[in-house]
């Protein structure tokens, strides 16, 4: 039954002192690094989703438990319906909806304040694969978006969400506060901020 497999010879690890970390094998990221370095790719990591009918406080707790600041909203059929961010829930959007509709804040659902897929602006996977971190950074700075959805086309021309790029991931990669980057007036200023570890 096991004829196609073989025993591997186990090695002695008593003389091994070091643990390898990504920072030891990857060059430091810069604005010229490939944009794919900051994309969460759903072929490798599953998207964190939330049903459209969930109450917003439950959705916020789910975000916290998953260590994300954005959730992909799915409808009753499991299809992509939109996105909702921590800012949407904790900001004035939920309160305004409750006030306008005469309901308690606890009754506001994800579907009420999410950003619908009908209004989401995205980048294609091809654009991202051909771009640098700086290109994406400049695009997000110009749009004011904290997240950018990445789409591609699967078999038979089916469009799908392939991944997401978040401001916080760019910030983590470059080791610079994204707020500081948003305040920069020129691209040269952004490069200077990155080169000096967040200081002008």
Automatic annotation (TrEMBL):
Domain of life, source organism: Bacteria
Domain CBS: 39-105, 114-180
Gene3D superfamilies named in the record: CBS-domain
Assigned keywords, A-Z: CBS domain
PANTHER family (alphabetical): CBS DOMAIN-CONTAINING PROTEIN, CBS DOMAIN-CONTAINING PROTEIN CBSX3, MITOCHONDRIAL
Name under which the protein is recorded: CBS domain-containing protein
Organism of this sequence: Marinobacterium aestuariivivens
């Amino acid at each position: 039954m096991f004829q196609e497999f073989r025993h591997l010879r186990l090695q002695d690890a008593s003389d091994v002192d070091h643990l390898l970390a990504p920072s030891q094998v990857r060059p430091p990221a810069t604005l010229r690094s490939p944009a794919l370095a900051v994309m969460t790719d759903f072929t490798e990591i599953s998207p964190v989703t939330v049903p459209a009918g969930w109450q917003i406080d439950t959705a916020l707790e789910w975000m916290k438990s998953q260590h994300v600041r954005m959730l992909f909203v799915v409808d009753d059929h499991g299809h992509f319906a939109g996105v909702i961010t921590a800012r949407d829930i904790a900001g004035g959007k939920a309160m305004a909806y409750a006030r306008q509709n005469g309901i308690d804040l606890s009754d506001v659902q994800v579907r009420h304040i999410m950003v619908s897929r009908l209004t989401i602006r995205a980048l294609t996977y091809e654009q991202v694969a051909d771009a640098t971190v700086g290109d994406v950074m400049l695009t997000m700075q110009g749009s004011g978006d904290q997240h950018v959805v990445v789409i591609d086309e699967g078999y038979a021309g089916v469009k799908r969400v392939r991944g997401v790029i978040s401001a916080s991931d760019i910030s983590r990669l470059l080791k610079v506060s994204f707020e500081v980057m948003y305040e920069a007036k020129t691209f040269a200023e952004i490069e200077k901020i990155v080169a000096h570890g967040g200081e002008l």
